[in-house]
Amino acid sequence: MPTYIGLWKMTDQGIKDIKNAPQRIEQGIKAAEKLGGKVLGFYTVMGEYDYVGIAEFPNDEAAMAFLLGLGSLGNVRTTTLRAFTPQEIANLIKKLP
Q1: Is 32:70 a contact under the CB 8 Å cutoff?
Q2: Domains along the chain with CATH numbers
Q3: Per-residue pLDDT, 29
């Protein structure tokens, strides 16, 4: 399955309701699973971003549905990176003309 790295920043709403963040994180993991995804890692971090998540989804459409649903709740804004394993990039490079 494709891997995605999410960089998330809390909104004003998200930080005001920080005490409920652990429950929201669990709900987010369950939402990803309902779309066929698997959360490989989730971290609260210091610096420019508040959270970093690493997940697999069956395809870009499932990942996008998850992100749109997450964003619509108003607690975080996301930047998402499609990640490629060394083997995936090697296979892509083999296809170059």
Answers
A1: no
A2: 3-94 (3.30.70.920)
A3: 96
